[in-house]
Amino acid sequence: MTSPRVEIDLGKIQANARCLVRRLGDRGISVIGVTKAVCGHPDVATAMLDGGVAGLADARIANIFRMRTAGLACPISMIRAPLLSEMEDVIQYCDASFNTEMDTILKLGVTAVKLGVLHDVILMIEMGDLREGILPEHLNDLATRVVATPGVVLKGIAANFACMGNATPKAGDMAKLSRLAEQLEGNCGPFGNFISGGGSANLQWALGEVVTRRVNNLRLGEAILLGTDPLTGHPITSLYTDAFHLIAEVVETSRKHSSLLSQSTTPKPGGLKLVRKVDIRARTILAVGQQDTDASGLTFPSGVEWIGATSDHTVVETAKSALSVGSEMKMGMNYSALMRAMSAPDVAKVVHGKQRMRGSAKDREIHPVLTLV
Predict the structure, then answer these.
(1) Which of 67, 282, 351, 366 is the most buried (most CB within 10 A)?
(2) Residue 108 belongs to what domain range?
(3) In 10 A of CB 133, how many CB atoms?
C-alpha cells in the first residue's frame, strides 16, 4: 500500500462530533465543525455533519471549493478574514465570513449586490489572543456601519482564545462577550444572535459548572478530529483520540551507538570526536520527514524513541530488535502534525468507513487521496 499515508477512521470522527454536539447542546451551544486541519477533506466533513454539527468552517477558499464540488450544501463559513482578491469566490461558496476590517466588509457587500445575494458577516472581537479582532471599544461603531452596508447582514460576533497569544478562556471572558452582544443589540437593534465563544480551547469552560449566558456557539476542529484539549494536550472524556494515524515505511535499520560523532570542542575547524558509549541500540529510519509532517508532533509505539528528523527522514531508536526494511510503523499525530500531513501532496489519504456522500457532485481532488470503502 502507498506510503507514507494518513489513515482516517470516519466512524470515530462522527462519534466525536455526535458526543460534543450532544453535550454542548444540553447547554444551549451549537457546534460548527472546522475542517482546515484536513484541508476540507469531503469525507471528514461529511462525518462531522453526520455527527450533527450545524455547519462547517475553513480558512482557505480552495478547501471550501473542494467541499462544495463534492456536493456539500450545508452552511459553510470562511473562518479567516476574506482576501480582497477572492471576493467573488467567498460570496459564491460561503454563507458567512468572519471579519475585522470595514474595507473588506464593504467589498463583500459590493460583490454580494453584484451577484444578487446577501452575505452574513460575523465580527471577530479581540479578547486577549493578540491575533485578529476588533477592539471592544470600537465594536459598536463598526457594527453600525455593517448594518448600513448593502449586500451584507450582521449575523453575530465571535472571539478567539489560545490560538496566538495562548490566552486561556475564562468565565469572565465569556461574560464580557455576552455583555458586548447585549450592548450591540442596544445600539444596533436585533441581529443574527450568533455569539461564538471560540474553539476547542473553550471546552473546559463550556462543559464546566458555568452559566453560558449569551454564548451559543463553538467552532471545533481539534476536539472533533483528535479528541484532545488544545490547552493541555490531554484526551477529552468519552472521545476517540485515534481517528488519524500516519503510516511510514522503514528504509534503513541497523544497530548503532546511541551517541554519534559530534563536533569537537577543540579550536580545529571541522574537528570531530567520537563520544564513547557502550549503549548499542537499534536505529531505524522512516521514509517520512518535515516536508510531510511536523515530526516533533508524532507519537510513536511503546519502546520507540524519536531521535530527530530532516526533510525526508525520521530517525527513531528501539531498545530491542530493529524493524525490518520494508515494514511499516504506525504513529499518532498532534494537531500540527495532522495539519501538515493532510496538506502534503506526497502523503496519501486513506479513509475507512466511508458513507455515501451528500449530493451528487464529483469530488475534484486538490490533494491525492486513496480511498478504501
Answers:
(1) 67
(2) 9-226
(3) 20
